[in-house]
């Protein structure tokens, strides 16, 4: 969309009449209508523009040779959410690889990182856990734009690619999306608000557990719970959350985990974005759950985003070691040091690729 909420395909078609040859849609479909985790879209046709729409989250997850033969340059206009497991960047990465083989240029129409560009949080993804929610050594919260990530990934994979980044004018690293003056248009069905994006780098880990992450409610990732949860004990066990308040909230998911069952849970209210660290919050939450809920709490089994072997929690967190630290009851201080080591490493790695 542009700032007047006109769809990009119309803007490009009007600017270059007759030159727009095809559309490619990522996970969730062209209009962000599909739900998560292997809910595929099929190739279709745009009846207004009279051009094909190729799904990159269906039978294929990368553009095919015959599809790329239609074009000279691939324009990428995707709103990322600033979190490594959000799959749009990996659709971009796969497309970049195929474009490099075919001699097709790639231009990123850059957009703000909605949760800011200063903070890095989380361990760096381990290579043995590369999957469709991570194909390069990034932490969960990378603090980079799509354009910056494209430059990082092109270097990481040593791609021989004509790559261009059209800068997002006016964006600064300390800005969150609601400070840009732009309207938030949902990039996927369960990302309705900027507040959702702020908690997502941590709360997405709950997808790898039997705890509801709030899918099937109007506040996914902001509320969470399960029928078995002892909320009062959990709040006491977690203690003070820097930059946020936990409030009791029962709910009944209309789909996904615990569908139509009453879940005892909490809503996560951010009161200070600068102090709140979503990844650490959820890791500490999981540690508390392991101590309190015993056998009631569990990790969910595969598959997850086309990986049929690894635990979803391992793929999401990007580290078996971190899961084992949670399981063995390592103190928060030890986990914090583990994360800090990774974060310091990535701060250095990303320096050469920052545009803003």
Question: Which structural traits does this protein have?
Answer:
356 residues; alpha/beta; Rossmann fold; Aspartate Aminotransferase, domain 1; 2 domains; three-stranded mixed beta sheet; three-stranded parallel beta sheet; 10 helices; 29% helix; 11% strand; globular
How would you explain this protein's 3D organization?
The chain has 356 residues and is of the alpha/beta class. 29% of the residues lie in helices and 11% in strands. It contains 10 helices and 9 strands. A 3-stranded mixed beta sheet has the order 1-3-2, with no helix packed on it. The protein has a 3-stranded parallel beta sheet with strand order 4-5-6, with helices on one face. Strands 7-9-8 form a 3-stranded antiparallel beta sheet. The longest helix has 19 residues, at 332-350. It is globular.
């Amino acid at each position: 969309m542009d700032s007047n909420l006109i769809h990009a395909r119309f803007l490009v078609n009007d600017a270059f009449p007759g030159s727009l040859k095809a559309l490619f849609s990522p996970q969730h479909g062209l209009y962000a209508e599909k739900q998560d985790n292997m809910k595929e879209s099929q190739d279709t046709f745009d009846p207004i523009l009279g051009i094909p729409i190729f799904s990159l989250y269906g039978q294929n997850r990368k553009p095919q040779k015959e599809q790329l033969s239609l074009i000279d340059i691939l324009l990428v206009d995707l709103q990322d959410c600033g979190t490594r497991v959000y799959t749009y960047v990996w659709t971009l990465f796969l497309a970049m690889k195929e474009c490099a083989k075919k001699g097709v240029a790639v231009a990123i129409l850059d957009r703000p990182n909605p949760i800011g560009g200063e903070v890095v949080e989380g361990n760096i993804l381990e290579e043995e856990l590369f999957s469709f929610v991570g194909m390069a050594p990034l932490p969960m919260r990378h603090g980079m734009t799509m354009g910056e990530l494209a430059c990082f990934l092109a270097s990481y994979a040593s791609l021989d690619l004509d790559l261009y980044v059209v800068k997002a004018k006016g964006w600064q690293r300390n800005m969150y999306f609601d400070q840009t003056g732009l309207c938030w248009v949902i990039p996927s069905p369960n990302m309705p608000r900027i507040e959702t994006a702020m908690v997502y780098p941590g709360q997405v880990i709950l997808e790898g557990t039997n705890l509801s992450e709030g899918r099937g409610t109007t506040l996914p990732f902001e509320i969470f719970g399960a029928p078995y949860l002892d909320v009062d004990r959990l709040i006491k066990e977690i203690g003070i959350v820097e930059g946020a308040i936990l409030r009791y909230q029962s709910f009944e998911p209309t789909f996904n985990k615990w569908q139509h069952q009453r879940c005892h849970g909490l809503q996560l209210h951010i009161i200070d974005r600068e102090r709140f660290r979503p990844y650490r919050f959820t890791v500490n939450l999981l540690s508390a759950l392991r101590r309190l809920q015993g056998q009631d709490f569990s990790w969910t089994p595969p598959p997850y985003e086309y990986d049929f072997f690894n635990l979803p929690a391992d793929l999401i967190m990007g580290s078996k070691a971190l899961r084992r630290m949670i399981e063995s009851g390592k103190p928060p201080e030890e986990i914090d040091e583990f994360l800090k080591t990774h974060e310091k490493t990535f701060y250095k790695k990303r320096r050469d690729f920052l545009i803003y």
